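WARN no homologs supplied; continuing
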Amino acid sequence: MRRQRNVKIVATLGPASSTYEMIRALFEAGADVFRLNMSHGTHDEQKKRYDIIRKIEKDVGRPIGVLADLQGPKLRVGAFKNGSEDLVEGAAFRFDLDPKEGDATRVCLPHKEIFAALTPGSSLLVNDGKIRLKVEKCGPDFADCTVTIGGTISNRKGVNVPDVVLPLAALSEKDRGDLEFACQLGVDWLALSFVQRPEDVLEARELAKGRAAILSKIEKPAAVNAFAGILAVSDGIMVARGDLGVELPVHSVPPIQKRLVRTARAAAKPVIVATQMLESMIESPMPTRAEVSDVATAIYEGADAVMLSAESAAGSYPVEAVTTMDNVAKSVERDPIYREVIEASRKVARSTVADGIVAAAREIAEATNISAICCFSQSGTTASLVARERPSVPIIALTPIERTARRLCLTWGVHCVFSDEIIDRFKMAVVSAAKAAREYGFATERDQIVVTAGVPFNVPGTTNILRVAPCDERLIFRTDPE
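OK structure emitted
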């Protein structure tokens, strides 16, 4: 099965998408990677979904990526005596560590780390930013505030603190347990929530021990400010626009999204654009025009993947949501302006042999009659570098490592092929690439392909050779008898 687009689709699984039949339908509609949201569901439920994905993978004969999204620490107020209270603009309100039920003047905020970080003038946001308060006076166990935007505050509503870097680890005890479970399960990617600094990513990487790639969710102002350092120690990025839009002025999110996508692409690391992409399709079989434009914008920007959350996990139209995203992607990528935008945004500082090889592969492919770029990759680096170039021809990644093939399911334009052949000569690599190009419908015997690889074989990071080759094996042996 071959996708007729380059951008990848991530679909979240949940109550609406937990059976073999539904998950298979989502894959056939266009999902390339499935997200397991560790904020919801038990480990047993997640394992059942994972096992179904792997069965589908075996049945269709194509690698499928699995991403486990860790919850991160949740900051919430305590309970109110009356269940809720109305906060009026200009009123005084206190947060403290007193566990007693709250009233119209105060409530418990059971997170001493917040009080340790607050300063006068800091902002506290409640209930996804619907209620906003300004800190007037604070101490190690309290914060006296003025309500700047009022509303109804109720039991255990979430709290955001946008102005400060909180002395909280990105991994809670629950996250640590979920991380170990997900790694033992065999997921390909771990999405890390509440990232504020590079050290948060390094902590998760140490716990993962190479068993899964680390994808950092950028959802806090501190993460935006420290993005260069976070990107350097991450394997991928998610632009999580929900919390970003709460903690930052909503009009600042689009330029941040564009900047993060371009920076991640330049680093050859996959970037997902997520949150509220087709939210109306939770309850409607048709998206709004604005949502379609939002998905299209992310694709025009060159994102590696776009993601569905509740639309596929809990909505009434999960297959229709994936189908819509697939159709939008194909429509955008057929637009001549798409290629103009992608090529205009190609700004890469090339400093290695591998950089030069993949750039030459793209230029040759686009200047001549080439059907596909085929790359052999142990770690996935070569395929990621080719994808960074955003070539106008398909990319076929061949690897003997199952884990690498699955991780590459998140990377723009890469068609992953698991090859169990032991390749020790470049001629046999060319033969295998030609066979894969024909088998998956990318080329015929009359076509040519570009092949990139590293010699010696089976050594990560040694991309150093490029060849234009025919797809007819007889011609390959005739021109290269070695």
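The chain has 18 helices and 21 strands.
OK
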